[in-house]
Write a structure and sequence with these properties.
13 strands, Glutaredoxin, single chain, two-stranded antiparallel ribbon, 7 helices, five-stranded mixed sheet, alpha+beta, about 40% helix, about 20% strand
Length: about 270
Amino acid sequence: MSLIAATLLLASAPAATPLDRTDPVPPVLREVGVLEHPDGRLPLDLPFADESERAVTLGAYLAPKRPLILTLNYYRCPMLCTLELNGLVEGLAALDRTIGREFDVVTVSIDPKETAALAREKKQAYLAAYGRPAAASGWHFLTGPAASIEALSEAVGFAATYDPVSDQYAHPAVVFLITPDGRISRYLYGIRFEPKTLQLGLTEASEGRIGSAWDRFLLYCYHYDSRQGRYALAAMKLMRVGGIATVLIFGAVLSSLWLKERRRTRAEA
């Protein structure tokens, strides 16, 4: 459950409605959360509409060697979605890879009542914030029927609930990293996304097909810490790398000394 979503819903609840003091979690939030399905496949043939009202499917946005970032939000959201997408833009803007070139982003509205006009407005706002023209062809804002939204949410383990009193959705703050063939590679939580976490996550989702050799080396030294929502230094792996490096350096020094001694012996002879 997102604390920001909880705060938002509590603040918007009618003042005359008493809170249950025995349970600090409002009823509307009890079913909100994420049940991770690592390596689960997305339902790629679900019908949606893009910001231009064209009929599309998720499968249309997959490309060889290019991972995908998937977000589930809704465009009327007064707080949490904006914070999450702002944090995502901020983190992605710090990377040397670009939406629409090395990877793509798909944002799907969880509200079946929302329209392509709202999606188009959101796309324009976030493209302006991102500031890279190539992203226009790589960041897609979708709307769709309730059946498609429910099927996609179930596939990724995303549980949101609608509060008819406030006309808002309670939902978790999470983005999904998707492999080029449509499998869930990683869940990233929160409203701030460290550039290093995004970079390593995209490299991992692409199965090493994008990113530098240094990025792939870092993936060996780092593991994803689901409790912190980021990649953390893997001590044992680092020790192994350090041990191998020490052996190689020691071997190089010994070889150099042996060659010098051999040359000196030959010169004396």
